[in-house]
Structure formats: structure tokens, C-alpha cells
Amino acid sequence: MKKKDFTLFLIAGAFMGISQSIDSSTFNNFFNDVFHVTVTQRTLMELPREFPGIMVVFVLGMLLFLGDIRIAFVANILSALGMLAIGCLSKSFGITMLWVIVYSMGQHLLMPVQNSIGMKLAEEGDVGKILGKINGLNTAAFLVTSIITAIVLRYVKLDYRVAFSIGAIAYMASAVLIFKMTPYKSESKIKKLFIKKEYSLFYYLSILNGARKQIFITFGPWVLIKIFNQGVSTFALLGFFTAGIGIFFKPYVGYLIDSMGERFVLTAEALLLILVCTGYAFAKSIPGTGLLTNTALYITCACFVVDQLLTAATMARATYLKKIAVNSEDISPTLSMGISMDHVVSMFIPWLGSLIWNAFGYEYVFIAGACIAIMNFTLAMKIKIPMQKSISV
Description:
Number of domains: 1
Structural class: mainly alpha
CATH class: Mainly Alpha
CATH superfamily: MFS general substrate transporter like domains
Distance between the termini: 16 Å
Number of strands: 0
Largest sheet: none
């Protein structure tokens, strides 16, 4: 039964990869082309988009009686409905923001249960390997979709309604596959929200991840769009490179989690993020003539790709929590609490970043990001895994 469920979840992850590729390639350009948003407006959009991330801990608490698999089904349905409505029912900016909330709730509801389901399907000692395989196939689907998108956009003008509709269909297919999995219900029908001191380091890492993540989600693409005047085809191409590397990189991160441990992976992530932030901030300051005139753009694109790859470190935060969890019933609620804490920070970072961008320049947004990465490194160094065997989920 576990093998069948693992296969279904793998294929479901591939369909999610299709939707995520379409989102990554079109979301920012959709708002730029259809609503002509400014930097300030784009940052304010993060308030409704990230609000579901704060609410997810409460919504998950109400849905825990369903179990992780049924919650994942609901999450994919919400994502499908939201994505379809953004593409086909966006008659005004305000209405579109309401559909963004629906779409975002589906995405955020999936985050804590996706890793939890993957860990349930893994044998002891192979948790990182299994999560790496799931993420690797998801990335392979992302790659294929990015290639197709890049080729199509070379010859055909983008129709956002078609693009978002395809993404919605893929989410719906993922929902159907997950529904066919064996449901694992929670041992308790009601789970109180809690914050336990045993998980303090996990919470702190989640908060810093929220700050770091939002800088790149909001301002990374916006630098390419506004500073370097790049369009949808560029993001499709970057998605292609990210996914092509990610097919091998994400399983390798899973291997490193099992062999080297979570502290190694998370400290390495922090060090690489410092370099990425530095690249974003100072790429345009590099002088160049002739063949080197695009150096700044290439460096910025490389930073974009590396940052996307480093999201694989989320697996290490999840497996770290599994290893320190007091009992298995704490895992999903604590993952969702971490996401909510992460998003409390996420809602304010875009606003603060836009003030810094407008007052001093975009470079200083990424200098601030480097400072956050340094704090993340310091906390990651404090990770200690108990000697006893981690609990089974």
C-alpha cells in the first residue's frame, strides 16, 4: 500500500510541478502587463498574497481531523480554483486580489502536509532520500513545462487565460491522484494550537526563512523586470535552467540530509545566500564593454537560479523537526505554525523593502537580505540532533 501511495504522490507532485512552472513564468508579468503595477503596488500585493500563510495554522487546525492526505486534496482544489479564476475572472485588480487569496490559501495549506506525507511514506533513515525523489520529479515536470513555455512564447503571444487554465487543470489532476491515496487520519480529531519551547530553534529558523524568502520572491523577479527589462520568456528560460539542475540537485540535498545532517545543509544554504544577495546587490556595478555588457544581467540571472535551487533546504527544516519532535502528532501542527510565523514576517518585508528600494535603491534591499542570511547561519550552527532514534511518523 505504501508503494502504491508513494507512486500516486510522485505523479501528483509532477502535476504540481507543471502548475508551479506556469505560475513562476507568468505571475509577475501578468500583473505587470495587465494591471501595469508599480514597485510599490507589487509589494503591497504581498499583503493579501501572504495573509493565508498566517491563517494556515488556524485552517489546518480545523482540518486536522481529515488527516494530511485529505488536507492535501483540499489544498490542490483551492489552488486549482484560484488559479483558474485569476486567469479567467480578473476583471479588476481588487477582484483579482480576492482570487489570489484563494489560490494562496491552497498553496500554503499544502506546504506543511506535503513534507509530512513524504516523511510518512519513507522508511527510517531514508527520509531525506524520499523527499529528494519527490522534489526531483516535481522539478522534472517543472523543467518540461518551462521548455514548452519558452518554445511557445518564442512564436506565439502569451494568452494568460490559457496559461492559468492549464495550471488549474494540472492542480485538479494532482488533487484526484492524492484523493486515491490511502488516507492517514489524525489520532485526535481536535488539536489545540501550541508553541512548545522544545521547537524554539525551528520557529526562529522559520521566521528568518520568511524574511529571506520574501525578499527574493518579491524583489528578485522585480529586479529582472524593472531594472533589466526582462519578459516572460526570460523567466521561462530561467525556470528551464533551475529545473534542469534541480532534477539532480534536490535528490542530492536529500542525500546530504541523510548523510551529513541538517546543520550542514542549513549552514551551507545560509552561506550561499550571502553570495546570492551580494550578486544581486552589486552585479550592475561591474564595468563591462563589448561582449561583457550583459555581465550584470547574467550574474543576476545566476543569482535567481541559485536562490530557486536553495528552496530545497526546506526539506532539512522539516526533517530537523521530525528528529526533535516529542511525538508524531506535533509534526504537522508545528510545521504549519512555522509557516504562519514565517508569513507574519513575510507580510511586512515587502513594505519595508519597497521603502528601502525607493529611498536608497534596490541594491540595499539585498544588502539587508545578506544580513538576514548571516543571522540564519548563526542559528543553523546551533542545531543539535538528539542521539536517540527519531520518532516514526
